[in-house]
Design goal:
alpha+beta, 3-stranded antiparallel β-sheet
């Protein structure tokens, strides 16, 4: 079924680009009532909206007509990473401490 979907996507839409995660971005040939073409993304792998980099997000929502590139312009810029919550790469502030070791002045609320 996926091959049929990709066939119709390639017939009725124009591929605009691809990001560093392998997501493909398309633009429809048809225009809507505001004279904007429909823009959408075909995700590579799991459908996770946080895998869309900020510049591509702006392009998808017609905030920019400039097609993004993935090069880093400034030395202070970091490469975009998707949301890693729920994965083994998630941020853990105190990986070696137990919860009780974090703060000794914590007292749980007790209802009366």
């Amino acid at each position: 079924m996926f091959k049929l979907d990709s066939f119709f996507i390639n017939i009725f839409n124009k591929k605009i680009g691809q990001d560093q995660f392998g997501n493909a971005y398309y633009e429809s040939h048809r225009k809507d009532y505001l004279n904007n073409s429909k823009r959408f993304v075909v995700y590579n792998g799991k459908v996770e909206p946080s895998k869309v980099p900020p510049l591509w997000h702006a392009w998808l929502h017609h905030l920019s007509d400039e097609i993004p590139d993935t090069k880093i312009d400034f030395k202070w810029q970091k490469e975009y990473r998707p949301n890693l919550t729920g994965t083994r790469f998630a941020y853990k502030p105190c990986p070696n401490k137990e919860r009780s070791e974090v703060s000794s002045d914590y007292k749980p609320w007790q209802p009366n």
